[in-house]
# Entry
Amino acid sequence: MILHKKEVIILEVIDKIFEILKEKNLTAKNMADSIGISNGNISDWKSGKSKPSITVLPKIADYLGVSTDYLLGRTDNPEVNK
# Structure
């Protein structure tokens, strides 16, 4: 299967979300509860069944204490444009 650039970026964002959760010793369930989405949504992201919507990315960034630019891979500095 060939992935388009946009799909690769989305997979990288999802990987980064889970990487930050692990680094900060946070759970996906607590994040889901905190930002108002179901734990099933997060499970679907991890399995590739769905992807986070553009409207939920700022909530995820806020919960994780990073910028959306950092989640999107536009900067290596989690504080830029926060």
User: Anything to note?
Assistant: The two ends are 36 Å apart (CA to CA). The first helix runs from residue 5 to 23. Residues 5-71 form a domain with the 434 Repressor (Amino-terminal Domain) fold (CATH 1.10.260.40).
